[in-house]
Design brief:
It is built from four helices and four strands. By secondary structure, it is of the alpha+beta class. It folds into two domains: about 90 residues, Double Stranded RNA Binding Domain, CATH 3.30.160.250; about 45 residues. The chain has a four-stranded antiparallel sheet with strand order 3-2-1-4, with helices on one face. The radius of gyration is 18 Å and the shape is elongated. It starts with a strand and ends with a helix.
Length: about 140
């Protein structure tokens, strides 16, 4: 899931970053990269807490839907890609029947992928989330 974040450079040279879709996520870093890492960790920690409470994982907004907000003027937008599958509840094993050629195509896509999925299960979970509008 891509979460938009807004980064402002402060007078003291720090970078303050806010994740508008996740209330309370405000952090800072001494560099742009540090600020992005700090907000990633803050988002993941918040999602872990939501998961433990059985609460819904918030969806990421479109930057265009947030950019006119007064609090975000003058900042630089970025997208933070968070794998939300660990926060969607305990994994359950199922049997799935797929045509052989489709399974081969999935395996090829997994072998080429370096980001979203590392095995068939993650590929199928990602595809399902995309189809359901969760990703």
């Amino acid at each position: 899931m891509y979460y938009p974040v807004i980064i402002h450079k402060e007078d003291n040279s720090d970078y303050t970053v806010v994740a508008p879709d996740i209330p309370g996520i405000i952090t800072a870093g001494s560099s742009y990269e540090d600020a992005l890492q700090m907000v990633r960790e803050a988002i993941e920690g918040h999602l872990e807490c939501l998961s433990e409470l059985g609460a819904e994982i918030p969806k990421g907004s479109q930057i265009s839907d947030l950019s006119d907000h007064e609090d975000y003027k003058g900042g630089l937008w970025a997208l933070v890609d968070i794998d939300i599958t660990p926060y969607m509840g305990k994994a359950k094993k199922i049997n799935v029947t797929l045509p052989g050629n489709l399974l081969s195509s999935i395996d090829k896509a997994v072998a080429k992928s370096k980001s979203h999925y590392t095995d068939r299960s993650k590929f199928l979970a990602y595809a399902a989330m995309k189809e359901l509008g969760i990703q």
